[in-house]
Amino acid sequence: MIGSLLYPKMTSTRMRLSLDGMWKFTLDKEKKGEAAGFADGFEKFDMIPVPGSFSDLYTDKSIKNYCGDFWYETEFLMPEVTDRKVCLRFGSVTHRAVVYLNGHKIGEHEGGFLPFVIDVTDTVNVGTNKLVLKVNNELNEETLPCGTVKKNRDGSLTAKPYFDFFNYSGIQRSVDLLILPKISVADYSLRYELKDGQADVFIDMAVDYSDINIESKSEDVRAFVRFTDEHGKAAAEAELLRVDGYHFGGMVSIDDPILWNVLDPHLYTVTLRLISQDGTVFDEYSERTGIRTVAVQGEKILINGQQVYLKGYGKHEDFNILGRTFNYSVAKRDFECMKWNGANCFRTSHYPYADEWYQMADEEGFLIIDEVPAVGMMRSTHNYVDAGTGKYTYFFETPTVPTLQKNHLLQVEEMIKRDKNHPSVIAFSLFNEPETTSVQSYEYFSKIFERAKELDPQKRPLTGALEKNSSPEKCQCHRLLDFICLNRYYGWYISGGEDFFEAEEKFRDELDRWKALNVDKPFVMTEFGCDTLAGHHSLPGTMWSEEYQNEYYAMNFRVFEDYGFIQGELVWNFADFQTSEGIFRVGGNKKGIFTRDRQPKSSAFVLRDRWMKK
Ligand code: EVA
User: Fold this and answer.
1) Nearest C-alpha to atom 1 of ligand 1 is from which residue?
2) What CATH number was assigned to the domain covering residues 308-611?
3) DSSP 530-561
4) What are the C-alpha distances in Å from 532 to residues 344, 416, 551, 598?
5) Does residue 215 have an active-site annotation?
């Protein structure tokens, strides 16, 4: 079962103590750590930052590219508390972790991009505690994202991702010690219905009773919800009704609600309280949220009933030295750059980002397509090239598929559970560029989409990004999508460097064929772009030059204008980013509109011109 994924917050009943800092770190090439008693602590180590990706901290290439087991260790002091639940929360550990506290295994987690929480009430000591993690960053075809490992002659392993971003790993997001009440809010969800001058807000809340005997205690618990507006004034308040021992539910109406909107965010604070019959407050939890609806109607995407055109980017969590570590300054700069050039949306390609990204998007009025790390579901180490060749890259016919699907479902569940209340999240993307032309792929994804639909209380649109082989004639899976996302590289991987005339013709031909299907759904171009070396100029524009990038976008935009069903354009990529080394990548992927240190290439101004007007 997934524990509470609520964002860790200090409230009148909750404490959050950060365990971030320098931790002991060691590689375990021979996987002997367990036998050598590393769970109790290890003697040879280096100190590295948590949170952090370890790869770009070192000058030794074998550490940079290290693949296998590695261990982290820290000590923390636990204050004396009575009648409290104590938990450890890990923002993300990539890709999998086994956690030991004071020598005892207390939990494990699969998946490198979502948080997990372990209840340590019974295992934590008052005073000193030793926390040890065994982490592993190998890739295979049963877990997400997909890839493989190559065994080298000296026995070491090299990650061979089936995806185009560096396999950054480690404890990449914050670690917190949470001191919670024994009766606590475990989860809640919000759903909105807008009427004239009124918003009906439906609330569901789950309660955790820890080890308390629920039979005797649950009757004593009452649940309340309050919405406070931006000025601190109560907008609505109600007691929730008991659904069963663990759940409460109810509805409040807010008159003249100030809606959250695209680049015009208005937030309410929702406060949930659990109180005993005699008025003792068990728990209080509050968060900022926004009231808005999302819908797809014919070829339109609607926010609060109004059509919206998505403008923006596919991004990565990626920065020099930090790798995939969340950093507020980098995130702030990214939002500033995106606002400057008129964007309103980004896709969390190709994995769920740190919680703080969604909070910042809520505050900025940005729209997010939230993507699960289902990337690399095509057996190739450079899908982005094979995607254009039309050759069949089978995937869903192998014995690994049932386990992969189980993991995929789990990550969808964790992502929706974590992100469902953010007004910024307008859709969930359940895959990036898998093989979708086989009957097996349809069977596989039907189950994923069905489950996601069940899980999302707001029933937001579900989508996935389709690569070139997923053509209108061959793709089996586009009928599962509420809006269709296309990743297309006409003018780069297809007919690149030639006259844009040919690329344009091929692009239009494909779009005509989609049009002929009459699917009556919106399409969003979720990737289009070309590698561009900042400062490389050429007249006439040639591949890799800034001039070529500008011409490339001019051609793509010309095409989009002629197809009304295109309801969004998310350029690939916001910034240059790190990848595995290869003959197609010069110091990483250079399709950024901004460089890796977030300075504009000239196409940033082209986008600004277009998006400020659109
Ligand atoms: C690219 N193309 O070739 C991008 C990749 C991305 O980085 C894709 O979805 O089709 C992928 O991950 O630059």
Assistant:
1) 384
2) 3.20.20.80
3) --B-TT---SS--TBSHHHHHHHHHHHHHHHH
4) 23, 35, 12, 14
5) no
> What pLDDT is stored for residue 387 in this prediction?
56
List the beta bridge partners of residue 573.
none
Q: Which mutation among 528, 552, 572 tests ligand 1's pocket best, with the greatest number of atoms within 8 A of CB?
A: 572
Nearest atom within ligand 1 for CA of residue 577 = 7
433 is annotated as an active-site residue = yes
Nearest of 540, 460, 443 to residue 500 by alpha carbon: 540
Mean residue pLDDT of the chain comes to 95
Q: What is the pLDDT of residue 519?
A: 97
Note the pLDDT of residue 393. 66
Question: Is 3.90.1300.10 the CATH number for 15-180?
Answer: no
* Ligand 1 neighbours (beta carbon < 6 A): 163-164, 350, 384, 387, 432-433, 467, 487, 527, 572, 589, 591
What pLDDT sits at residue 398? Answer: 87
Per-residue pLDDT tens digits for 33-82? 999 999 999 999 999 999 999 999 999 999 999 999 999 999 999 999 99
In the block, residue with structure tokens 């792929």: 441
pLDDT at 239 over 80: yes
SS3 89: strand
Say how many Å lie between the CA of residue 373 and the centre of ligand 1.
14
Q: What are the residue ranges spanned by the domains of the chain?
A: 15-180, 184-292, 308-611
Q: Which atom of ligand 1 is nearest to the CA of 589?
A: 13
pLDDT score of 380 more than 70 = no
Any idea which architecture 184-292 has in CATH? Sandwich (2.60)
pLDDT for 1 equals 53
